[in-house]
């Protein structure tokens, strides 16, 4: 795995330096026109919706998401977990994208994913038919059932919650029921703008995830 790991690291650096992977902050510092910045952000969202955040390869079914709103091919997550459990990797403080994923319960499998044209993964809101990979709308994933829906299609009409909101104001607590199936859990805004937003969201939703696990165990 050593050679493969180095190749993956090199590929990640190349992609992160590409124009499509510029952060909003970097775009604002650049000399592009505003329309260019908007287009770059759209391109980034499309890549995030169609590529595994761990392997950087096109998504393959089954697809999962984590509390930070990142999407992964489940196979890549399983491979990563197994690699971390190997004696040579134990205690390794890796800075890779999956550092918060140590077991399968750290991710939720998307239930409304399909194999689209040309074998590409397609995730559409079951209520509106909107394609997440279009890169123009915000989507949330419901942790209990795995449904991914357009954020504004929630029954309460909520938009994507901001990462700075306190726990009492999170989308998960305001509207805990999935608008597709009615299962009670919490909503995870997907494909955020920056890594700092992802960290804030992870810290905010982690208590909800623990409470959800506890409730599921008590119901069994």
From TrEMBL:
GO cellular component annotations of the record: nucleus
Stretches for region Disordered: 158-178
GO biological process: DNA replication termination
InterPro entries in the cross-refs: Rtf2 (IPR006735)
Name assigned to this protein: Uncharacterized protein TCIL3000_10_12520
């Amino acid at each position: 795995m050593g050679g493969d790991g180095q190749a993956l690291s090199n590929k990640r650096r190349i992609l992160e330096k590409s124009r499509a992977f510029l952060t909003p902050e970097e775009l604002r510092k650049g000399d592009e026109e505003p329309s260019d910045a908007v287009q770059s952000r759209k391109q980034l969202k499309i890549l995030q919706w169609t590529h595994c955040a761990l392997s950087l390869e096109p998504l393959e079914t089954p697809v999962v998401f984590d509390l930070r709103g990142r999407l992964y091919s489940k196979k890549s997550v399983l491979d990563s977990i197994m690699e971390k459990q190997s004696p040579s990797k134990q205690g390794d403080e890796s800075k890779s994208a999956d550092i918060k994923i140590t077991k399968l319960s750290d991710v939720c499998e998307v239930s409304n994913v399909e194999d689209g044209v040309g074998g590409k993964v397609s995730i559409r809101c079951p209520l509106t038919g909107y394609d997440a990979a279009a890169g123009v709308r915000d989507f949330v994933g419901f942790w209990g059932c795995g449904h991914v829906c357009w954020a504004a299609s929630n029954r309460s009409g909520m938009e994507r919650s901001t990462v700075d909101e306190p726990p009492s104001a999170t989308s998960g607590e305001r509207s805990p029921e999935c608008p597709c199936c009615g299962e009670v859990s919490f909503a995870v805004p997907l494909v955020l703008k920056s890594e700092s937003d992802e960290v804030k969201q992870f810290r905010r939703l982690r208590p909800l995830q623990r409470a959800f696990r506890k409730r599921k165990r008590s119901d069994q």
